[in-house]
Sequence to fold (321 residues):
Amino acid sequence: MAKKRPQTKAKRPQLSDTEVPVVGAREPCPCGSGRRYKACHGRAAAQAVTELVHRPFEGLPGECDWVALRELVPAATAELTLKDGLPEGVPSVTLATVLPMAWPALRRDDGSVLLGLQNDTASGDLSRDLADTLQRALTAQPGTPVQGRRAPADGPRLQDLIDPQGTFEPVVHSGFEFWVPDPENATPEVTASLERANAAAIPTVRLQGVDAAYWCETPEKNHLRWVMPHAEERLLDALARLQAAGRSGLGEGTRLVGSFRAHGLTVPVWDLPSGVGAQDVEKLAAEFAERLAEALASDVPLTAEERRARGGLTNRQVTLS
Fold:
């Protein structure tokens, strides 16, 4: 009998780290090592999933408004200014709270891009996930949505793509009609999604006299939710000083009831009587901002009463992210 010759496998060409594409965790690594992706070049991606970036929007223009649009505001848009300018064939890039069918992004027929903010993301760095979606939307075929995926662990973040000197001016909408520039030609799926979203939207108004403060209307009472950039511990001390002094409200019948913690920032919340509208609290909010600035500047240790007030505020704090 003829001897069997040993079988030899041709070695697959090894790819450099920068050339290895992202694949499923259990798939063979594209680098040719023979190991699964999660045990080879996917290790960095897996680590990125578990490491949470607490302030993903830090360094972006309007960080507080980014947080508000991500967590608090139903329907809003904001034009984005890119560091390298708009690519050819892309007339505009617009951030939107939500897109039809919860698409991560959409390249419209005219080439413009809508980037959805209120979507689940695959890693602990929301900024990196959004940047990956934005980059793919810029090169997508016009008239197509962009689906979500796990972003490369070494990919750019929003801070790498967005001009830090650009403006960020959210426009709050009463509904989601901005989805459909031509309602008559919208697909049945988009039309149905629009109707569902409009039915669930809570009326919301962004105050003009102070930054990142949003009035909203609910059936029982109205609220003011105000995203603030101050360090959490110092802000809670300042709010406690005002609470203990009876100066934390926004006028008769209003009450500071607690705060949210969202993406590394603190969001104080006030209950307002149902008859108090956004225009009614504009001046009151500006006056509160002056009182808060004074309280933030104080380095005097908290009194026993102020410590009790701080404990009450802390106990009513809810973490959103």
Observations:
- Residues 1-12 have pLDDT under 50 and may be disordered.
